[in-house]
UniProtKB/TrEMBL annotation:
Organism: Streptomyces kanamyceticus
Keyword field: Zinc
Organism classification: Bacteria, Bacillati, Actinomycetota, Actinomycetes, Kitasatosporales
PROSITE patterns per the UniProt record, alphabetical: TAT (PS51318)
Classification via Gene3D superfamilies: Fucose-specific lectin, LmbE-like
Disordered: annotated span: 237-261
Ranges of compositional bias, category Basic and acidic residues: 241-261
InterPro entries (UniProt xref): GlcNAc_PI_deacetylase-related (IPR003737), LmbE-like_dom_sf (IPR024078), TAT_signal (IPR006311)
GO aspect biological process, one term: glycoside metabolic process
Domain of life assignment: Bacteria
Name of the protein in its database record: PIG-L family deacetylase
Length: 702
């Protein structure tokens, strides 16, 4: 019996050409001619400040190493966008064939290896999972065709729609382990490396192709140009160092790091292709493509407290189970009905716990917000890997004008913004200073952009380096977080390669001092900085067992490590809010908890649960006046189970959250703005890269 997608070779190729013609962008097609000369790789110019392309409809592009990486590490965000009607294109770089044995739990592994068969079974598993995410029967037939790519390569592409929701899968099928044991890291780092594809069983594309470094960059950049994503999901290009021992066995980790050996080069190729795509569009069209990026950690998830509550985890595990399938399923695919080792309850029972967390590689608000001297809301973010500023057209209008390109790219997606004592805005970002591969430079650096005067022009970007010497250790730097103090200093903090804290200070004269390591033990990225009533700095971060704390003993003094604070171990970055009595309260969720707790020195905040503010991801909190001119209370901002922004005034038992209006999903984590004497604002990012402002006018009733 023929499988449901069967077609003649002529029909398949004709369909592929039609699909490609429908998605190619005029003037920005990086495909190249099959077998023709390879154009030079271009990279984002950090000094480029040209305009951005006009806003269009949202589309999510994900680039992953193996079938299932998106399900384990990028969900629930992928499902939330898909459910909101955002089309999703997922590009799978490797064939995922591994050892070629599709293992059924609690049974002996197959004796005969079948790499094409295992690859095909895993791809069928992806089709099952995405069909369920679209709300369809898991065995719904897909339209399966062949897509022409750069340099003569082709790839199977599968498409399925349910009303206004649409998913497309693109399988590049590069072997996980090539001839002579060559793997994807060599394709990134070793000049001259060539790898072949695996012909997945029952694929409409039965030919094999070769990839070198340049070909993969061009293919990914060409797919970006063709599909024009507004949101890009990548993997972690710079995973944490990891000591593998009895407590932390290596498992599937690559040596010395907490992630798979294929995840890292896949992320690096993706970031390099993004930079090339932006540079080419700038050069040819005179404007940069308009997209934002989120990167996700991988095996890191098993090393830290889990951060997904039961309801969110159950939904995520359902789609992983659909991907895993079972030998007895009637999927009508000759290769198999999924990756059997991941079927059933495996995602919930595995000791590795990969499904139990979702960690952004670059945590922080997207975008970050501030106000100018006229009272307009200003939002800073990263578009097209370049820093961008949006400014409210009129104070209180809740409408942003055209984004202004501030350059600095290629940048990681999250910025830190502060207003110094002279009312000048400073932006801090993490730049991919070099993404060469092939044995050449691969470096990161923290950079800063400062206004010359309040509401005035910005000066040039300045390099601040990283806390750790050497390119390899420097790549492990966390997102910069800064705070301005009343003595006209600016203190910059960043997580180090050793997973503790380092700082660098800009003096009142404007001169930056050297990096200083503060120690303090291992913490997760996502630092929280707050000033107390005396102007002293306090820094908080989530450790393995407690909230780690650094502070000044006196205003203007050095920041040093303090004893851990709070109650139980946090699942993510804690919120720190200055209470009306001058004390600092911490608010955070513990492992796998939906309900956050508030911890503070006052009795009513000593481990107080906030039972109605359920959801996932870190909580943000600031002190603000209740709507209607009431008293000052802590205001909480977070995400509910569906990823929608929610806000709550106060921590009293009667307090109830408000959910942001509108059905559209939020990209990343929104920011909270509580300017003195002005209405509270929540600023977030839509999937079409248009920022929005939400100003709740009334507090919810009990």
């Amino acid at each position: 019996m023929s499988p449901p997608y069967a077609a003649t070779r002529r029909q398949v190729l004709a369909g592929a050409l039609g699909v490609l013609a429908g998605v190619t962008v005029a003037g920005c097609d990086l495909g190249g001619r099959p077998g023709g000369p390879k154009a030079p790789v271009h990279a984002v110019d950090p000094y480029a400040t040209g305009p951005f392309a006009a806003a269009g409809k949202g589309l999510l592009l994900q680039v992953i190493a193996h079938p299932d990486d998106d399900l384990f590490f990028m969900n629930p965000q992928c499902h939330q966008l898909l459910s909101a009607g955002v089309p999703v294109v997922t590009v799978v770089v490797t064939a995922g064939e591994a050892g070629g044995r599709n293992r059924v739990p609690h049974q002996l592994a197959p004796v005969v290896t079948d790499k094409p068969g295992y690859s095909g079974a895993r791809q069928q598993g992806m089709r099952q999972a995405y069909a369920e995410m679209l709300g369809l029967d898991r065995f719904t037939p897909w339209q399966r065709t062949v897509l022409a790519l750069s340099h003569g390569a082709r790839a199977e592409t599968d498409e399925l729609a349910a009303g206004d929701r649409r998913a497309r899968l693109v399988f590049l099928n590069i072997a996980m382990r090539g001839a002579g044991g060559v793997r994807l890291p060599a394709l990134w780092d070793t000049p001259g490396t060539v790898m072949r594809t695996v012909e997945a069983t029952d694929s409409p594309d039965s030919l094999a192709y070769t990839y070198d470094h340049r070909t993969l960059v061009d293919v990914l950049a060409g797919l970006m140009a063709a599909f024009r994503p507004t949101v890009v999901h990548t993997m972690d290009p710079d995973p944490d160092y990891q000591a593998h021992d009895a407590r932390h066995p290596r498992g599937n980790d690559q040596p010395r790091f907490s992630d798979h050996r294929d995840h890292t080069p896949t992320a690096l190729f993706t970031w390099k292709a993004l930079s090339q795509w932006v540079a080419e569009c700038d050069r040819r069209d005179g404007h940069a493509p308009r997209f934002t990026t989120m990167a996700f950690r991988g095996y890191y998830n098993q090393r830290w407290p889990y951060n997904l509550p039961p309801a969110v985890l159950a939904r995520k595990a359902r789609y992983i189970a659909a991907y895993g399938g079972a030998p007895g399923w009637e999927c009508h695919d000759y290769a198999g009905c999924g990756d059997y080792s991941q079927g059933g309850t495996h995602a919930l029972t595995s000791r590795k716990g990969w499904a139990r967390s979702t960690h952004p590689r670059y945590p922080g608000p997207l975008p970050v917000s501030a106000t100018d001297r006229a009272g307009r809301t200003v939002a800073y973010g990263v578009l097209g890997t370049q820093a961008v500023r949006w400014r409210e057209t009129v104070p209180g209008s809740a409408r942003f004008g055209t984004p202004r390109n501030l350059g600095g790219g290629p940048l990681a997606p999250v910025l830190s913004a502060v207003v110094d004592a002279a009312a000048r805005h400073l932006l801090f970002g993490l730049r991919f200073a070099a993404l060469d591969g092939q044995g050449r430079a691969d470096t990161r650096e923290i950079v800063v952009l400062e206004q010359r005067e309040p509401d005035g022009p910005f000066g040039p970007w300045r390099r601040l380096g990283t806390p750790d010497a050497g390119a390899e250790r420097g790549r492990r730097v966390g997102c910069p977080v800064a705070v301005a103090t009343p003595d006209h200093r600016v203190h910059l903090f960043a997580r180090t390669a050793a997973q503790d804290l380092a700082t660098r200070v800009r003096e009142a004269s404007g001169r930056w001092g050297p990096w200083h390591h503060l120690g303090g033990g291992q913490v997760q990225d996502g630092l929280t900085v707050v000033l107390d009533t005396t102007g002293r700095i306090h820094v908080y971060a989530a450790g393995h067992d407690a909230v780690h704390h650094w502070s000044q003993a006196r205003p203007g003094g050095p920041v040093t490590v303090r004893p851990p604070v709070g109650g139980r171990a946090p699942a993510g970055a804690p919120a720190a809010v200055l209470e009306p009595d001058g004390h600092i309260a911490l608010i955070y969720r513990t492992q796998a908890a939906a309900t956050p707790y508030a911890y503070g020195p006052s009795a009513d905040l000593a481990g107080t649960p906030l039972p109605h503010f359920t959801g996932y991801a870190p909580v943000t909190a600031q002190l603000a006046t209740e709507p209607g001119g009431g008293k000052a209370v802590p205001v909480l901002l977070g995400l509910d189970d569906d990823g929608q922004a929610q806000l709550q005034f106060g921590t009293a038992a009667a307090a109830r959250p408000l959910t942001a209006p509108g059905p559209e999903a939020t990209v990343g984590t929104p920011s909270l703005l509580t300017p003195r004497g002005r209405p509270l604002s929540v600023v977030g990012m839509s999937p079409d890269t248009t920022p929005w402002i939400w100003r709740p006018q009334t507090a919810p009733q009990a």
